[in-house]
Design goal:
The complex is a heterodimer. Chain A is an alpha/beta fold. Chain A is 41% helix and 29% strand. The radius of gyration of chain A is 18 Å and the shape is globular. By secondary structure, chain B is α/β, with parallel strands linked by helices. Classes of the chains: A alpha/beta, B alpha/beta.
Chain lengths: 249, 252
């Protein structure tokens, strides 16, 4: 579903991704772990198409198409969702307006009819309930005045509403307390656990992986995938640390 | 022939950023034409208007507010040609003046608001919010003068200006001027000029919004501040739509 081959990318002339290869088939939840500065967030933003991130080599295909041939909004329209580590505040724009416009823009891109206001609100209410986010929060401005945990839950409500084929989740667990972590983890399972969908779950900690059980785990270090294994790899990393595990690799 | 001696020049503080050529096209007669509006004590009046068109415009409004009166004025200044709206306000005791203005557009036009707010009596309040969104080599200006008379204690006057420039050649100018003779007053003014938030645009794109939709949403949010106090929903929508129509007419 997502196939990354020998990807090189730089920011401001500094190479961050140095030949990263990884394949995530449909039906797989793939966790990416790695030390600070390894390039985890860079990978997420390169996939999302963030301005300033320059791809200097390699390729990414998404559902068989060249991902880099698509503009960021077209990537979203073709079913790629990027969960932000730091969700962005948009003063003056309500979540409801933002998400309805976003969903209908995606539907238009896919040649589908737009949802009416009523249909959208019903969908939003259902997904907010799933993430235990008060519907009133969705009437407020996008992420403005939200706590760290609320932002992450709102991010998952967005994912639920947009219902992507593939999600790249960049440290969705950071800033969450234990209860919120469980709610978010179960939300990811409910929304994305499917034979037709895939997830690239970027995280620092085992905690989230106790709830969202990954099928495979890869270690990203110095811009490359240095090791891939089953869920037991995450547990070893948690117990022994990156240095010890990578020294054995 | 125009009597050039009566035409202001850019040396005049109030005409510093104005489109003088446009003024010549309008003619000097317009300079003597004021729309005088007087509100009786306790009266509340609201007016929402859209100005600007294919040829230059000058609007001059003189508001006199009686004791405890409240005037609310909201303007979208969004024509293709230069348009200048001048408002002179004199506030009686405890009166309130609310102003929300938006200048939006491209080309070479200068769209501006010039207000002179005189707090002549104690306890008056005024609040002015102006948002300017421009592209090409257009300019948006807000020249706001606030005068507080010696005995006009407990005056509370606020001015807030924000400019959003969508292209490098556009400009926004804010000239707040305070002339305060009373000592127990609050006068606040703020002015910032910036560009569209790139991070927000990327976030919106990551959710599937094409650049032009993201821009429209961000501009709508930006100018929304100016009309927050406009309670009449139909009027609110009319002014907002006129502003956004100007954006959609652009090649951006």
């Amino acid at each position: 579903m997502l196939k990354i081959e020998n990807l090189h990318a730089e920011i401001g002339g500094t190479e961050i991704l140095k030949g990263l290869s990884l394949e995530v088939p449909a039906g797989e939840i793939h966790a990416i772990m790695g030390p600070n500065g390894a390039g985890k967030s860079t990978l997420a933003h390169v996939l999302g198409g963030k301005p300033g991130y320059e791809v200097t080599g390699g390729s990414v295909s998404f559902k068989g198409d060249d991902l880099f041939a698509l503009d960021p909004h077209e990537r979203a329209g073709s079913g790629l969702f990027l969960g932000f580590q730091y969700p962005v505040e948009i003063p003056g724009v309500s979540n409801v307006q933002f998400l309805r416009e976003a969903l209908n823009a995606q539907r238009k891109y896919r040649g589908q009819d737009p949802l009416t206001g009523g249909e959208f609100l019903k969908l939003a209410k259902e997904k907010a309930g799933l993430l235990k986010l008060d519907m009133e929060m969705l009437k407020r401005q996008v992420n403005v005045g939200f706590s760290g945990g609320e932002k992450k839950r709102a991010e998952m409500v967005q994912m639920g509403i947009l219902d992507p084929a593939f999600a790249v989740l960049d440290e969705t667990d950071s800033g969450l307390d234990i209860d919120a972590l469980r709610v978010v983890g179960e939300g990811i399972n409910a929304i994305m656990r499917s034979p037709e969908k895939g997830v690239l779950l970027i995280t620092h900690y085992q905690r989230l992986l106790d709830v969202v059980k990954p099928d495979r785990v890869s270690v990203l270090a110095d811009g490359r995938i240095v090791q891939t294994g089953g869920p037991e790899l995450a547990m070893r990393l948690e117990a022994e640390g990156y240095d010890a595990v990578m020294a054995d690799a | 022939m125009l009597d050039t001696e009566t035409l202001p020049t850019r040396r005049d503080e109030a005409w510093r950023y104005a489109d003088i050529d446009a003024l010549e096209a309008i003619g000097t007669d317009a300079l003597d034409t004021w729309e005088d509006v007087t509100l009786s004590p306790g009266e509340t009046r609201r007016h929402a208007m859209i100005v600007g068109g294919d040829s230059p415009e000058l609007h001059r409004i003189r508001l006199t507010l009686g004791e405890g009166a409240r005037a609310e004025l909201f303007v979208t200044n969004a024509g293709a040609a230069s348009a200048r709206v001048e408002i002179e306000i004199s506030l009686g005791k405890g009166a309130h003046f609310e102003f929300g203005g938006v200048t939006i557009g491209g080309g070479e036009a200068v769209r501006e608001f010039v207000t002179t707010t005189t707090h002549a009596e104690p306890g008056g309040t005024s609040n002015q919010i102006v948002r300017a969104v421009h592209w090409d080599t257009a300019a948006g200006n807000f020249l706001g003068e606030i005068k507080v008379a010696r005995h006009a204690q407990q005056t509370d006057a606020a001015q807030d200006f924000k400019g959003l420039l969508l292209e490098a050649g556009a400009s926004a100018n804010a000239v707040p001027q305070l002339e305060i003779y009373a000592d127990d007053v609050k006068c606040a003014h703020g002015a910032t000029v910036g560009q569209l938030d790139e991070t927000a645009r990327y976030y919106m794109a990551a959710r599937g919004l094409p650049p032009e939709r993201a821009k429209r949403l961000l501009v709508q949010a930006f100018i929304g501040d100016a009309f927050v106090e406009l309670g009449d929903e139909a009027e609110h929508e009319r002014l907002l739509d006129a502003a956004l129509a100007a954006l959609e007419g652009s090649k951006l």
